[in-house]
Amino acid sequence: MDTKETGLLDEIKSKFKVDGRVQREQRIWISTDGSKLMEVCKWLKDGGFTHLSAISATDWLKDGKYELTYHLWSYDDNILVTVKTKIDRKNPSIDSVVPVWEENAQIHERELHELFGVKFKGNPDLSPLFLEDQEDVHPFRKDFNWREHVREKFYNKENEREAVYYD
Amino acid sequence: MIDEMEPAPKGTDYDLYFGPAHPGSGNFGVKLKVAGEIVVSARADPGYLHRGFEKLMEYRTPIQNAVLSDRLCVLEPLNWNLVHAEAVDELMDIDVPERAKYIRVIMAELSRIQSHIIWYGVFSLGTGFDTGFKMAFGYRDYILDLFELITGGRVYPAGYICPGGVRRDFPNGARDKILKVLDKMGEMIKLEELENPALGARAKGVGILKVKDAIRLGATGPVLRGSGMKTDVRKDEPYEIYDRLDFEVPVRKEGDAYARYWIGIEEMKQSIKIIKQALKELPEGEVIDPSWKKPKLSVKIPKGEVYVRNEVARGEAAVYMVGDGGSKPYRCKIRGPDFLHMIPVLEYLLKGAQIADVPAIYWSLNICPADMDR
């Protein structure tokens, strides 16, 4: 079957040598490694994927990887392309896509930096967004023990009413 | 705009905090750097409503998450119910019965009207037209009464639109009641269209967003359409039964606060049209997939991932759900339209604006902090 989705996927595959699949109508998923990410993103942006719908991260604890996903929408073709890339969990850093999608990418990366601790090289502002008065805490990681954290941060063992939270 | 003006006299530049305790701001603040009457720069200060939904959802099964998804936005819980339910449906490959699809659309559109009414109300308040605010909240109650009749909850439907369909069928007489409420809404829109001169004067030419900037800053929905881009997820990527319905996408070229306000009014008319069509064609049958009739507490979410987009009242909403074979989603990313509208777009629009225009710009974006902070 020859649709606009398979056509676009073949073009990306032959140009960048990446894996990919067509999930259904209007959905394409591509996996690439971190070094090719910028090239792929620039090419897609020039090809009409001007709307960055979201950037997300998934914490694959068992594999020791973070998977970053960039969901891109094209207003001309009405296709959603998701670019996936895996980075090392111990040293999570990747090039920022701020040069490509500017402010839109900036705010998404700032959020992920706070919640997952992923460093985006080249992002001008990675200051905390939602959390206040919490240093070096990345609550959306799978190994983050929130029960422990809440107990230590907010409850006082000496206080009779709050001591019940200490089992 | 700043460059053209003479520098503000010494001692007139200061920091001004708009929110989080401002009556019109919601649980959200903006720090404004002000020189005289002009805003030099704005910095959003989010986080007052951060509840960590994405993490909470990793600890709950889909049927529990359906209830949780109401709280993603106070003003349009049914639309968020729908996005979450669609993500689970697609990931688990559930067939939704036809009647449920129609009911889902009717409820989502009622929720959209209700959200736009509040938009009209607070926008009127922001531009100094208090009567509009009171009128809006009065008329909103008709829809809340309908929600109470159909879902059991006035504001939060408690997971009425759930994976597999909808929780309950319409009760007896619901159809006539909906039609009656729609007539009331038509009345209200006629009143809203009688433009208050103060509102027009305060909103026209204020907070202009060009279409190029709108796309760059990630604006979607009414904000993007108010800047002249004809796009709507319901048309670009029809979900449920939107491909069978006849409706139009209102667009304005000006990109100012008034254009966005006008889009809201026009969208209410289109929603009424949609509900009337859906009620007319509403088929008989089941309203939920038989295997989901009793709340399923232990399910197996297969390995895989989906990205589901919907058009909610404020713009593009999306859920990115990853399954790993367990009973709970491994990751559930929620993309709220206001995350972009409240931080980059608002910061951009406030730069160079007059202090007096801040509420008009702020509310013309139809802002709700709940789905920004999540």
Shape of chain B: globular
Instruction: Specify the overall morphology of chain A.
Output: elongated
Q: How many independent structural domains of chain A?
A: 2
State the order of secondary-structure elements of chain A, H for helix, E for strand. HEEHEEEEHEH
Going by CATH, the homologous superfamily of the largest domain in chain A would be: NADH:ubiquinone oxidoreductase Nqo5 subunit
Describe the oligomeric state of these chains in a short phrase. heterodimer
The named CATH superfamily of chain B: Cytochrome-c3 Hydrogenase, chain B
Q: What does this 3D model show about the protein?
A:
The complex is a heterodimer of chains A (167) and B (374). Chain A is an alpha/beta fold and 167 residues long. Chain A contains 4 helices and 7 strands; from the N terminus they run αββαββββαβα. Helices cover 31% and strands 29% of the residues of chain A. The radius of gyration of chain A is 20 Å and the shape is elongated. Chain A starts with a helix and ends in a 13-residue tail after the last helix. The model of chain A has no long low-confidence stretch (mean pLDDT 84). With 374 residues, chain B is of the alpha+beta class. Chain B has one domain: Cytochrome-c3 Hydrogenase, chain B, CATH 1.10.645.10. Chain B is built from 14 helices and 8 strands. Chain B starts with 12 loop residues before the first strand and ends with a helix. The mean pLDDT of chain B is 86. The chains are: A alpha/beta (167), B alpha+beta (374). Chain A binds chain B through residues 23, 26-27, 29, 50-54, 56, 58-59, 69, 71, 73, 75, 78, 80, 82, 101-104, 106-107, 111, 129-132, 139-140, 146, and chain B through 46-47, 50, 52, 54-55, 215-218, 220, 229, 231, 236-237, 305-307, 309, 316, 318, 320, 322, 330-331, 333, 335, 339-340, 343-344, 348, 373.
